[in-house]
Fold Cytochrome P450 2U1.
Amino acid sequence: MVSSSFILICSSALSLPNIVASFLFLLVYYLVSFYQKQRTVYKNIPPGPKPWPVVGNFGNFFVPPSVRTKIGDQPNSTNAIEIEALSHQARIYGNIHSLFIGSQLIVVLHGFDLIRDALLNHPEVFSDRPDIPLVTILTKRKGIVFAPYGPVWKKQRKFCHTTLRNFGLGKLSLEPCIQQGLANVKRELLRLNEERGSAGVNLTTLISNSVSNVICSLILGQCFHHEDVEFRTMIRLMEHGLKICVNSPAVLINIFPLLYYLPFGVFKELRQVERDITVFLKRIIAKHRNTLDPDSPRDLTDMYLIEMLAQQAAGEDDSSFTDDYLFYVIGDLFIAGTDTTTNSILWFLLYMITYPDVQDKAQAEIDQVVGKHRVPSMTDKGSLPFTEATIMEVQRLHSVVPLAIPHMTSQTTVFRGYTIPKGTVIFPNLWSVHRDPTLWEDADSFKPTRFLDHDGNLLRKEYFIPFGIGRRVCMGEQLAKMELFLTVTTLLQAFKFRHPEGKPPPTLKERFGLTMAPYPFSVCVTPRGGNKEADLGNSDLA
């Protein structure tokens, strides 16, 4: 039995005055440490806006815009996660500037010169990944995208890239898989268009399913029907999970990690999404293990399991090839390979209904080179310079990952005269490169011809970097380019896209999240040539 004196002591220790005193002590200790760090470790960091105590430059998240305006602040100028805010800060503090989220120092790099210098000339310093609380909770710092830079990451990335190439990544052998999905998209799009009439069709689900299935074929060895309930549920879960992570109060987990465990609201919702995704992926991994034939691997998952067995047989007890790592590798590839490519395609189609003259010109080029009796192929790419230039111009205007995936310094370094401490988060602002008026004439305008020379040949520009640069460049770049090219050319060959009559014109403004996505929009389509069978028939896959 607990003695009454012990209970009395505990009650006294947990009394309100003691709790308040402890809180004040910790707060004062934090503030003293923070400002001492400002004078020592952060003495020569790049300039930037003055941070708030505890929350840093994220403080304005808690202050309504109307209040910030009344106190003379510009609402968009200190929201640390908005592109416009970062551009505003660059105009004030220069192309290399700092800000804080909580006590975490962030350095933002604007412009091609700075980004190239950091990521290409100092890769060992600027290629690490930050330990962001929310990301760490969800990924355990494993996988490919968010894993820390080092020998384990290099080995995992090399294995995955080599394996994916063996299964068709970036090769013509992958075309039939992509075109099979696009044939389904065309049939379903025509059906929905007839069903909904002038209301139009939202393309997001159709495109997302098609793109996801290509990834599934490479890493899971199977394609799902676009109406498969489990598959569609998984796509929605991943989309919803990303939305929660970047566009809800869940972002506060990065300042107060314990919020993740709150039993209500978006915090509870996020944990449920994580559990559901885990069940789905682990069930597929278990199925692969139970049906594995080492002599006949079907996909990346099989190859990974075979590598695990080989390393176990070799007695490599400290191998990074584990069930856990496989789970996070699959999750990384699935999410990263779906969201970015889907949004790139949606942006392209949005521009086609906004600029019908450009759509007409691209379709005329496709008709001349490909015709109407076979589907486009990657072998046509070199003969479709205007179409390719249009794709590139859309990517330039809307970098779907405008700040790349955050980098981190692996050691303290002096860069461009500033001391950047070890563990600093680095944001390479790709958006600033693609909107730089010193590199692009009339940078905010849509001009596909900027990627063509006087003879109509495609121009390659080193400062066009939608997939990033350096050692963390997107591993799926070749696959994304293939899917993007084949999807837009196949759809433009088959349909004329237009905005639904009577509806307000869609905006070209972005929704900022993990990727830069367009706001939802609808399209109406007309089969080109007026012959549905010619547009959608079996000749598609001949």
Q: What stands out?
A: DSSP finds 19 helices and eleven strands in the chain.
